[in-house]
Specification:
By secondary structure, the protein is mainly β. It contains 2 helices and 48 strands.
Length: 587
């Protein structure tokens, strides 16, 4: 129904039209010639689309309607939902009823409880219309200076607020100029935060100052006393080789500013783990800032040498080396000649060995070379040719029997000696008296005076012949015809060899006839003639008998007969007979 305040000036145009049309009541509910509509937008200015016709408004505000009704599109309406009511109302039974509130029943969002009634409120400036600001839940026009506010208020951040009753400042409004209120200390300071400062200064202890460290700046970057915008947070945010310092990419100054496995080289972080060999371990060298094995002595320093890929202290003398190696140019290595080794050592297969040898000629004292060491022999084949192993020593010319010796040598005490065996010396010259006998003591049987043969059993003599007699004071036997003779036989039993043999007689010829002769005899050699010519005094007379004697004749007896060459005309007086052997070698 139409509100009692319908006579407001806003309805004047419609009253003017009433004179031309139907009575006022008809005007209000459509008038003459009302235009059909679906929305108010289709109606002329000042008219509303009510019940499908453009009509004059029946209400202008909610208070033009009955309690609980709302003025909408120029007519009073009952609510269908919360959207039809004010923020301070709620829709119940088709009517908008004012909200009641308390601590237990708070107001809906956007309202505040005042005197148990929910009234429009705000939480922020965004809840207000236009340029209004939210002031303690109320939207108020903004202030600019204190005079825009009441006598007990001040303009603070665009809002009029009660002045503080405490000492000091409560907000920046209480401070002069561009200073700010430190609400903790209630003092006015130059700055509270970096944004309060200019010239990229930092806010330190309430004053704007140049920065000295990254923590002075909000950006975390202090460069040349100014807080600058962060360029990086870690090295990988920068170009290759650069270091992130206080948010700014730049050259590095030490290794700690680089990543693991990198070094700061000429202001750039580069891959590497060393600058010098001292930075490396296990004798490695530093090459192109990398620790690696050495390949030559020049890679090392401090007099060290490259051995097995590592730098080691070089040797200075032989005693610095082990395993028989020698010191060459600071390196312990193999020898090549004996003179590189110490006295008493030999270079064997590149190693200096004490008593070392290559063959038997390298050994002394009769030792032999076995596995490159001079040692005592254990068998003959270990000794050089012509030597035998006797009591662990190789002895040259050694023998165990005569056959081990060269021709003309005999084995005596395991030594080959010249074939001049000991025995009775000959009275007639060099050599050993194989035997020597004399006729004496007035007997026809000869007396053995010397014997150099091995066995006396292997000899015999037959001194008696026809007409034989003793002469020269019974010291000689007379041989005066071919029928009278001296026959001697012997054996070379036990004789290995001899070089020369001679037969000698001590006697004289006292005949005036033909020369007396020696006539040998043996079953092998036959007869021959050699010997005395003319008249001879009593002395030793010798002939070379070598051709008539041979050790190959053993074990049979050899023999000879001694008699005058002619019967009756020559006489011999024989006192002694001696058979001498030179170069005698016993078996």
């Amino acid at each position: 129904m139409f509100n009692k305040n319908i006579s407001r000036s806003s309805f004047a145009p419609f009253i003017a039209r009433a004179a031309l049309c139907l009575p006022l009541l008809l005007l209000v509910y459509g008038g003459c010639g009302a235009t059909k509509c679906k929305t108010t937008d289709e109606c002329s200015s000042g008219l509303f689309c009510i019940e499908g016709l453009c009509q004059a408004p029946r209400c202008e505000a909610n208070n033009d309607c009955e309690s609980g009704e709302k003025c909408a599109d120029g007519q009073c309406r009952r609510c269908k939902g919360q959207e039809d009511c004010l923020n301070t109302e709620r829709c119940e039974d088709g009517l908008c009823i004012a909200n009641k509130c308390s601590e237990n029943e708070p107001c809906p969002s956007g309202q505040r409880c005042v005197n148990t009634r929910c009234v429009p409120g705000c939480k922020s400036d965004a809840d207000c219309e236009g340029k209004d600001l939210c002031n303690n839940g109320r939207c108020d026009p903004p202030c600019f200076i204190d005079t825009d506010c009441g006598a007990d208020e001040r303009c603070e951040e665009g809002l009029c607020k009660p002045k503080t009753t405490t000492t000091g400042c409560a907000s920046d409004k209480d401070c002069e100029g561009a200073k700010h209120c430190d609400t903790n200390s209630k003092t006015c300071v130059e700055c509270l935060k970096q944004a309060d400062c200019t010239e990229q200064k930092a806010c330190k202890a309430g004053t704007c100052q140049v920065c000295t460290q990254a923590t002075d700046c909000t950006s975390g970057v202090c460069q040349s006393g100014k807080c600058v915008t962060t360029e990086c947070s870690q090295n990988k945010d920068c170009a290759a080789g650069q270091h992130c310092r206080q948010g700014v990419c730049g050259p590095c100054s030490n290794d700690t500013e680089c990543e693991g496995g990198e070094l700061c080289l000429s202001g750039k972080c580069q891959q590497g783990d060393c600058r010098t060999a001292q930075d490396c371990t296990s004798g490695q060298v530093c090459h192109n800032n990398k620790c690696q094995a050495c390949t030559q002595d020049t890679d090392c320093s401090g007099g060290m040498v490259c051995t097995g890929g590592t730098c080691q202290n070089g040797c200075t003398q032989r005693s610095d080396c082990r395993g028989g190696k020698i010191c060459k140019a600071g390196h312990c290595g193999p020898c090549s000649i004996d003179t590189e080794c110490l006295s008493g050592e030999r270079c064997i297969s590149g190693v200096c060995l004490v008593g070392g040898c290559k063959d038997n000629t390298d050994c002394t004292g009769g030792k032999v070379c076995i596995t490159n060491q001079c040692t005592s022999c254990t068998q003959d084949p270990q000794c050089p040719s012509g030597s035998l192993c006797l009591s662990g020593v190789c002895k040259a010319g050694a023998c165990r029997k005569d056959t081990d010796c060269a021709s003309g040598k005999v084995c005596k005490s395991n030594a080959c000696t010249t074939a001049t065996s000991s025995g009775p010396s000959c009275l007639t010259g060099p050599g050993i008296a194989a035997y020597r006998f004399r006729y004496k003591y007035s007997t026809y049987s000869p007396q053995l005076e010397a014997w150099g043969l091995k066995s006396k059993d292997w000899w015999e003599t037959v001194p008696v012949g026809a007409g034989s007699k003793l002469v020269d004071n019974s010291k000689a036997i007379e041989l005066k015809s071919a029928a009278s003779y001296v026959r001697v036989r012997w054996s070379f039993q036990g004789i290995k060899s001899f070089t020369k043999g001679r037969l000698c007689i001590f006697g004289r010829s006292y005949s005036t006839g033909a020369s007396a002769k020696f006539r040998p005899w043996s079953p092998i050699h036959g007869d021959t003639t050699s010997g005395l010519v003319s008249v001879y005094p009593a002395k030793w007379y010798c002939v070379d008998w070598t051709q008539y004697m041979s050790i190959n004749d053993k074990p049979g007896l050899l023999g000879y007969r001694l008699y005058p060459a002619q019967s009756g005309s020559s006489k011999l007086a024989i006192q002694a007979i001696e058979l001498c052997l030179e170069g005698l070698v016993y078996q």
